[in-house]
Amino acid sequence: MTITYTASVATSHFGTFIKLLARWRGSIYKLMWRELVIFILAYYALSLVYRFALPPDHKRTFEKVALYCEGYNNLIPVAFVLGFYVTIILTRWWDQFNIIPWPDRFAVFVTANVHGHDDRGRLMRRSIMRYCCLSFVFTFRSICTVVKKRFPTLDHVTEAGFMNKDEQKIIEGIETPHNKYFVPLVWATSLISRARKEGRIQDDFAEVNQFRGQLGSLFNYDWISVPLVYTQTVTLSVYTFFLSCLMGRQFLEPDQGFKHRVDIYFPVFTVLQFIFYMGWLKVAESLINPFGEDDEDFDINSLIDRNLQVSYLIVDGMHLEHPQLIKDQYWDDVDFELPYTAASEQFKTEPHKGSAVDISVKEKDSEFMPLPSLPENQTLFSTFVEEGKNIMEDRSTPKNIPLPMQSDGSLQSRISPRAYSKKSSVQEKHFPQRQVSNMSASTTCTRSDLHNSQQISTVWSQSTLAHILDVAETEHRGCRKTLRIYLPCLTWMTKMVIQPVLKWNVLK
Q1: pLDDT digits 0-9 by tens, 467-478
Q2: Within 10 Å of residue 258's Cβ, how many Cβ atoms?
Q3: 291 CB contacts (<8 Å, ≥6 apart)?
């Protein structure tokens, strides 16, 4: 039922689209000719009344109404609401077509996985595909008017060969308030399970669920339509706009000082505007449900016929059959060319090799730059790993890292008094004196020890990072910028890992 004109526009030349304007079936003229005739007749009726039937004082009133309609009809946002509405309808229309399930993929899986040339294997394959097509018919009997008219009852479906009398009785005996389109697919899965038990299936495939999901999506589109309030808003905006145009676009006598100078008996641009806007609305009305009887609706009846025929052909007529294996005509050739006819020779082109293939680089710019060299068996990462090993062995200050000491030999603190008082309160909370006093004299931990451990961890983090940065400065200058970026991450690791380890070592 869909009007196809793809072949007519395959090649663009002068007048390609103009020729399409002469088509009637599926055209805009067929959709809206009635509305256009009514609009023109109403326009001429008001014009004749104004010109010949009204007295002068009534003409003045008519002119005031016409000016009022002309001044305010542009406030109706016809183009905005109509354009957005048609966009939604077109997207919905195309999505519904893409969601229609095709049994070809499922049939290929069935013929490839359900083995057996005997009558039982053949019966299983044909029954599985017949159940899928039966589910397809049940679905479209519920959402498509042309399919419902073709199969008004289950008897018609049985008579067409989609199911037998016993299967019809089973479906009629199932008591459920919902649609029974899924019942044949359940039968198909049961047949697949039986074929697996009989050893006819070695590989798993879940095409039945995908087929059912697409049918369910079609039900969802039929259930949930475009909101009625939006459809009403668009329809009201278009029709009220042109009702106001019937008065606002009338010719008024220029003797009264109006802007009209030429009496155009036929409203050319008003009619064009009516065709564009009303045609836009008619397109949306035609596509909002593609399973009807319009010219642009999907031809589901022919699809039903095609699905059953192709399914039987794949799973039965072509089951495990293929032509004889012989060498092709290019068996011994690697570099060969396929032939062209005289009509297609002009379209022969060279293969595309890439847009950057022809770019040339100057010889002086094509030399590789020398890379910074590192000492043999020495890398920045190995240096960092070695420092970590020293820390884990000593569980104290890292080796070969000088710590800042005061004149009396004690460790120089880099922690401010304010930070120290805050840390001391935290230590009193987590290490109360009553818990420390229970320890033996040899393992008693004082606050000064904890303070020193914090100084050690702080100095370790600053000194170690400075040491790593010095190594990067001397060995690989390009890494120093990278380490500056990762410095916050290393500081966080020191705070969350090294400091608790040192505290535990002092307590121990």
Answers
A1: 555 555 554 455
A2: 13
A3: 96, 140, 143, 144, 145, 146, 147, 222, 297, 298, 300
Which residues, in sequence order, are bridge partners of residue 333?
A: none
pTM for this prediction: 0.66
First to last CA, the chain: 88
Helices (H) and strands (E) in the chain, counts: 20, 0
Most confident of 90-94, 442-446, 468-472: 90-94
Contact 244, 46 (CB under 8 A): no
- CA dist 88 to 91, 231, 350, 403, Å? 5, 11, 42, 72
Closest to 81 measured CA to CA, from 234, 216, 200: 234
Contacts of 73 (CB under 8 A, 6+ apart): 241, 244, 245, 248
Cα–Cα dist 452/506, whole Å:
9
d(CA 284, CA 234): 10
Rounded to whole angstroms, how far apart are CA atoms 21 and 28? 9
